[in-house]
Give the backbone structure.
Amino acid sequence: MSAVTSQPAPEFTARPASTASFGAYLLENVVRRNGILLAFVVVVIALAFWQTKFLSPPNLTNLVLQYSYVLILALGMLMVIVLAQIDLSVGSVVAFTGAVAAVVVVRHGMPWWAGVLAAVITGIAVGAWQGFWVAIVGIPGFIVTLGGQLIFRGLAQLVLNYVSLSPFGGKYYGISNGFLNGLFGGPGYDVFTLVVFAVAVVGFAVMQWRQRLARIKYQQEVAPLPLFIVKIVLVAVVAMFYAWRISHNRGLPVILIILAVFIMAYGVIMGRTSFGRSVYAIGGNLQAARLSGIKVKWVTFWAFVNMGFLAAVAGVIYSARMNSAQPAAGVGMELDAIAACFIGGASTTGGIGRIGGAMIGGLIMAVISNGMQLAGVSQGVQPVIKGLILTLAVAFDLWNKRRTSVAA
């Protein structure tokens, strides 16, 4: 027998963190991965040339006031869609929770916070009801929430006795219509608004720099430093331009602060918690998630409870904005929230979707709707355009998946 000589195991050395070439990184990470952001920029520039009033201080302020509740709904809808589920009832839940708040505040004369609390508790109960049927019983979310769409629309009408209930007034009205201004003064503009945005920009830059250092530490590819700096500068310019414009109107909207808090909170939940990772795992591969010990039923249940909670928040925001609760409130909001997620890159099959993408998708829907209103586009044409945008977004998602699978 011939002697068997053992060969020494090859030595593997960790590859140092690399900085991709400018052109390659620009194509892969900016054009392909951030195509939705580029699309948003293109839409904004086009609308600015098409309608000169689009970038006016009053209109930029109204954008936040009029569409903040859609962005709130999109935060919850993204979690449901990543789970490969859907919620068609959120528009009806917005009407129902707003009606409950109106009964408490307007009809019974209780404090504004009691109305908010009643609406939130109602939304959580609605989410638990639907989460039970989806997660525990096993009925598809499409069916459960389609039934919920009818149930909660009917309950909203019954609670309001088929008529609108108004006005809220006071602090409840200020939730969506209040402003923080005049704290620092300023010749023709609000300095406080500029200070808040400047602090936010600095915080964003610090966070991005820390993430870059962390990626380098773990030997992951990072953007070329010039491109990284350009990104920070562009974000700062856009943010401060927006701050400068709205500071000339009424200052910093209270609802913008509320929205920012929710976005940051859900960014952390979806990106840095075990619950968020479980949501992505279930949507990506249900069987593998079960085998890995993830409690699929409870994660799904709490995702629907969360959707009910955020629908209640949107119900409070919308009723405060309108200064009334209406039986027909929230019609079509579920479609706007779903469209925001899909346009923002969420997958129709689950497992894929980002908070930032959903917010940008919602902003695209908002600015397009706002631009059409400024241009006087008829109410019949507007939903046609929105529907086409949603169809194209889903078609692009499917095309991109096929292209990726072929390349692999």
Remarks:
- Residues 191-217 form the longest helix (27 residues).
- Residues 1-17 have pLDDT under 50 and may be disordered.
- The radius of gyration is 24 Å.
